[in-house]
């Protein structure tokens, strides 16, 4: 089943065209990695997929339902508010800088949206949150505040928060870029575990060996276009495009 389909996406900030005719499909249970140099449009593509940015042209469908489509003039037209609210329930997003509410406890950070948006009872939300915290190795941190946690612990809470509403697809935007190298491993381990459970994920990452080993499929972006895409192992270990080869030379992938 196709969970996400993005067709011919275009996005500009003023005169700066950051996405140029980008298309991507994500199937249920698939892990898609997006790699590329800084400024290539990777994070903007994720922000467009999750409604944090609007596209100028192109169409986006979740589970076959339109989020945005082109009109007869080739301009993007978004669905009505009730449809967009429904589509928002299909995905979760993990930010690179955690984005936890500093004045909420860990438990409340996870339960706030399920209670107020997802209409779960407080008992349901608490039970789900505690189960997720246990999975993340943080069951003893429910009543603490974000400032009392390490960066790796905060990111694990952020992942638990994204999972709390049982999304169909989970997006990660450079989930380890704000972490010290020694904390990176614990977050990558959590994502590996999710992949082993066939969680559908789209991961923007600069961890090349991780992308190769965890993703099923990789898109390499540069200057707003998809330069090369394909099977993760093949693309990282044996890139075909010269630009991809040049980019991957900087990493030890073997």
Automatic annotation (TrEMBL):
In this chain the ABC transporter domain maps to 4-248
Predominant cellular place of this UniProt entry's protein: membrane
In Pfam terms, one family for this protein is: ABC_tran
Q: Which InterPro entries match?
A: AAA+_ATPase, ABC_ATPase_HisP-typ, ABC_transporter-like_ATP-bd, ABC_transporter-like_CS, MetN_ABC_transporter-like, P-loop_NTPase
Question: Which Gene Ontology CC terms are recorded?
Answer: plasma membrane
Q: Which UniProt keyword terms apply here?
A: Amino-acid transport, ATP-binding, Cell membrane, Membrane, Nucleotide-binding, Transport
The record describes its membrane topology as:
Peripheral membrane protein
Question: Which top-rank group of organisms is this from?
Answer: Bacteria
Q: What is a single molecular function from GO for this protein? A: ABC-type amino acid transporter activity
Asked whether the keyword Transcription is assigned, the reply is: no
Q: Where in the cell is it found?
A: Cell membrane
Q: SUPFAM superfamilies this protein is in?
A: P-loop containing nucleoside triphosphate hydrolases
Q: Which family does it belong to?
A: Belongs to the ABC transporter superfamily.
**The name this protein goes by in its record:** Glutamine ABC transporter ATP-binding protein
């Amino acid at each position: 089943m196709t969970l996400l389909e993005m067709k011919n996406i275009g996005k500009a900030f003023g005169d700066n065209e950051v996405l140029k005719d980008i298309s991507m499909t994500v199937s249920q249970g698939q892990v898609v990695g997006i790699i590329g140099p800084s400024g290539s449009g990777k994070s903007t593509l994720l922000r467009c997929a999750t409604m944090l940015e609007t596209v100028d042209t192109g169409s986006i469908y979740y589970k076959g339902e339109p989020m945005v489509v082109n009109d007869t003039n080739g301009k993007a037209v978004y669905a009505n508010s009730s449809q967009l609210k429904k589509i928002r329930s299909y995905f979760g997003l993990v930010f690179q800088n955690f984005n936890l509410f500093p004045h909420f406890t860990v438990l409340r950070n996870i339960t706030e949206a399920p209670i107020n948006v997802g209409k779960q009872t407080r008992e349901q939300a608490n039970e789900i949150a505690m189960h997720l915290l246990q999975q993340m190795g943080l069951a003893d941190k429910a009543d603490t505040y974000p400032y009392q946690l390490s960066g790796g612990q905060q990111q694990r809470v952020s992942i638990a928060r994204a999972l709390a509403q049982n999304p169909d697809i989970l997006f990660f935007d450079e989930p380890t870029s704000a972490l010290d190298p020694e904390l990176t491993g614990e977050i990558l381990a959590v994502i590996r575990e999710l992949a082993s459970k066939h969680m559908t994920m789209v991961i923007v990452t600069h961890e090349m060996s991780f992308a190769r080993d965890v993703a099923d499929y990789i898109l390499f972006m540069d200057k707003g276009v998809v330069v090369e895409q394909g099977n993760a192992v093949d693309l990282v270990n044996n890139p075909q495009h010269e630009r991809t080869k040049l980019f991957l030379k900087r990493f030890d992938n073997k």
